[in-house]
């Protein structure tokens, strides 16, 4: 039987998930909820679903699963409500900006024996999956060093920055999750450096736009993450894994695959501009994985614990910048 | 209002078009027809359309347009029937293997003022479109030399080869169309060489598996086409245009974009294996273009005349091989 | 003992060979000859050799080998004189523009049991050697189709064109040799198309600037060659070999290996501008190979016969253009 | 007049410099010194220079300049002796493993008004020079983030490791110099993480084989360096500079530029195996730059101060690893 979905939040990412649900065999989009009527109407018009309130969806017998795409500060509450209501829950990262709130929420999920998947879309990117598959197939041998380059084409609006929890919790969090996934071992210590280089106003808002992080596991494996809020050439998303037998690396995605040559040289297109186009396959795969795990009763591939750990690394990075030292993750998790 | 489609033929390419129609805004898949019940049922199950006979579809008031995906020897008849029935017609290439039959069919289309689009999917590939856009934007200057590399991963079944009209009419025909499109000028002479190198049985069936063609226009522009029915590394599809100002070239598409390095060197994935995956975007764009032209009442981007001309180049190539000389297209068109 | 060289002709290519001889262990540059005193002086100043006349060199006991870099119409005479004088001879291609003259010259070489190597430098390019090694190691299986792209950054001076014997004898001749080398089988038929697209004056001088050639062997292996006298992006030199097991391809050489990315995309440097820089390693390897074969008494890797056959293919191509038909090489060789 | 050289030390790097001197116009190799007679003889035989002792060279009137390629612990003494003797001095990095000793040595150089160039060969690599030129031409805008990947194909012998001063002083020191050069601003703080992952014995010797470093300048520019003593795929040497306008990146150098494709995909050669082949052009350019600056009386492009600063960054990195904190360079320089 088809899994019946409601989507909470019809903003940009809500629309991405609506399309993914609507086009995935084995899933049906039943309802959309959004306080902005026009946003909800856009989704309804495109996919022919109902418009309902979140309260109605909570008690809708014809909804098996929800996708939470509402503002971050509502995530933890909604996860708890819908787990209690017996719905399978897919929630966009992060669960919450506060680590204790995340921990409390995960206890509720556990108590309800609910299904929770946290949206770390990059784990479902076909290229990154191919890198992971190469590791798992032993092609690089023992993983030793991971390099993650992640640069946004431009900074988000200032008011988003204010609410985002800062670059480590908002942007680097994806890279923290990738690092954990690729290292195959928990991170023990975090060192980070942070600067404001692209826009002084970002600094005035208390955030950074340019950061580098070194992660180290107990056995000495390391990962480096380099982030910037500005890359004029597009959305720069690369990973590279060095192991005892070799290297596996995922390249960027250009807008096309043509080269034009002239007297000045060879010219390729800029990169796909942002996550909506770059990760279109990842978002589809992610929802498909959620559907499959709900249908099969298996554990979700990206869990609440993954969300908690990535947030802990973000907090450790922030502390490392503030105190100018290597911070143990155990200091954060307490 | 949404354009209402029926698809004639539920084979491999029929399923590709069914998916394209079903997922294109502004189009609705109303019916599928196929003498093989199971094939029709597959499409019905996936997209929820009716199963009807071709005769029924011909007289269905709720069908505005048809996509002809039946065997080649039925194309011309169906084009004529559905143009007379007032349906817009999209037909897979070729219109027919006989040039006079194509010419006669196009006269019927003209007489009925019907809409006919012939499926040269490659013109709608995003990369090839980007090459064409680069030409049109003047980035390569005056086009002088076109190079088209087109190699199939493997040969089709022997019985398909028997009915295919031979490699020039079946495989090179796509490249002939690309050459005409990229040269921007009609071809005047054709020289071709042909061999059987991959499988002697293909030769026994009267066909070739390895061909090279030189096309030359009246003003001296040239195109070369290199084809093989075997490429162990996947479906090799490249175009390159040299002009007075520079070069534009479209690269191949690999199965992924990761590189694994070890003591033996750097290893990338094979190419996408065949047209179903390589040209997935092209097929979607093609149907979208058909819908747009029907809705706008504009001429179709790939016409019956394009089908006729590509077939004429195929016949000229065959004659060139047989007679060991440069053949003028005017000899073929009479 | 070191092989003692004289170089006949101190022009551009003579200077390339002087440097190669001077920097190759086992070789000594003894003398340079050139009617232009300043040219000879440049070589003398750089490498400390004598300046002598050709006549003097012919009778110099301290010269073991000569490198002929004089104008084409003197090559055959000088080869004969120096073979008779007992010197090992390296001669720049072509031996002569007239096929009968080449044949007569090779008879003299044979009669004197002289050593003659003809300068097909590309066979000594490290990348092309790696392609040949991949073929010889069976990595591509049986060779089926060869593609050679060869474009000069710009046309030579008009007076050079007048004396060059035309594009097929002057430029394509290198590609004919490469095709023979890579096909591993003699060519049976030649088809060619030729145009004047880059400069009408080249046509007025009776030459072409844009040509495509198809070569076919008796067993059906084929090669295509595409040439232009203009490539704004540099000296375009690519080869590609398709076989039953796979493909081997050599890429171009850019001026450097850096990429600069900005809002317009990714930008690489143009190609090395011409043969003096692109084939610097090939020229050095070529002279080293000549020295080694002289010292070892082995046959030279590129022979007078290779020069003759490449010229025969050029004549066949010219005839193909003139007569609009496939020309058998046997028609040319008689 | 030609600059007359003696080379002190005929080991691997001494031979590299001997070849560079011998083949550079404007330089003459007069003498070689090495306590190992066979090593000195190799250089003499190849280039026809004298074999002399260091003492003799010190007082040789026919020697204008020396290249110091002796063991590290002799560098500072020899620099002082030859500066006092009035010879121009090129010294392989490092000047010494002890920062105070370096400082003392540089004072002697200054007092003698001597010419000292320290061998940071990578600044003279054509690709890295092209990256620097792109920066200087404003193509990347203001430099913000530098990424340096530097991996050796394998670790040096254990006894070398014992004398090397450790990975930061021996290997990363090149990257520290590159970072300073590319950032265009002095580093203020250093954070480093270090592990033993490739060979436990390296750890037993008190060294590391896998390190990551973050450098930060006062204005917030950052560089990351990732090092490993093992890369199965060859000598991995990449730099990348992100700026306000874009990115400049230098790619690796493979053993050749051919690709072989088969059913398993596309295969490129491993990287050039180590510095002797990868940086052959850099070593030649470096010596040419030294000759040019001596002849022109200009400051050397890589100075004793550069050597001092790179060593200071190495010491800061070591301290950062030991103390688990960001270390200010001012703590090291005192």
Automatic annotation (TrEMBL), chains A, B, C, D:
Protein source organism: Aliigemmobacter aestuarii
Keyword field: Oxidoreductase
Signal peptide: none
Segments forming domain GFO/IDH/MocA-like oxidoreductase: 128-247
Gene3D superfamilies assigned: Dihydrodipicolinate Reductase, domain 2, NAD(P)-binding Rossmann-like Domain
EC code(s) of this entry: 1.1.1.18
Name under which the protein is recorded: Inositol 2-dehydrogenase
Family per record: Belongs to the Gfo/Idh/MocA family.
């Amino acid at each position: 039987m088809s899994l019946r979905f409601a989507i909470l939040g019809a903003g940009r990412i809500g629309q991405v998930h609506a399309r993914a649900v609507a086009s995935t065999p084995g899933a049906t989009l039943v309802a959309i909820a959004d306080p902005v009527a026009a946003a909800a109407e856009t989704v309804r018009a495109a996919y022919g679903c109902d418009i309902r309130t979140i309260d109605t969806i909570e008690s809708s017998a014809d909804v098996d699963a929800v996708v939470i795409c509402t503002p971050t500060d509502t995530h933890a509450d909604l996860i708890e409500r819908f787990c209690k209501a017996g719905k399978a829950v897919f929630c966009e990262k992060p669960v919450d900006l506060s680590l204790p709130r995340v921990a409390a929420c995960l206890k509720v999920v556990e108590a309800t024996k609910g299904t929770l998947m946290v949206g770390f879309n990059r784990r479902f990117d076909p290229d990154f999956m191919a890198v992971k598959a190469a590791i798992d197939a032993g092609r690089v041998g023992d993983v030793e060093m991971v390099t993650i380059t992640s640069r946004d084409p431009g900074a988000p609006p200032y008011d988003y920055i204010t609410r985002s929890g800062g670059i480590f919790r908002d942007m680097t969090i994806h890279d923290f999750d990738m690092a954990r996934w690729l290292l195959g071992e928990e991170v023990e210590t975090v060192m980070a450096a942070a600067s404001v280089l692209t826009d002084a106003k970002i600094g005035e808002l208390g955030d950074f736009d340019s950061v580098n992080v070194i992660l180290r596991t107990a056995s000495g494996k390391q990962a480096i993450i380099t982030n910037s809020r500005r890359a004029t050439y597009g959305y720069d998303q690369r990973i590279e894994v060095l192991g005892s037998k070799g290297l596996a690396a995922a390249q960027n995605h250009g807008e096309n695959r043509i080269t034009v040559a002239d007297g000045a040289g060879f010219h390729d297109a800029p990169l796909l501009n942002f996550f909506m186009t770059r990760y279109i396959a990842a978002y589809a795969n992610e929802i498909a994985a959620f559907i499959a795990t709900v249908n099969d009763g298996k554990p979700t591939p990206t869990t609440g614990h993954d969300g908690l750990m990535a947030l802990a690394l973000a907090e450790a990075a922030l502390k490392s910048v503030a105190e100018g030292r290597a911070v143990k993750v155990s200091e954060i998790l307490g």
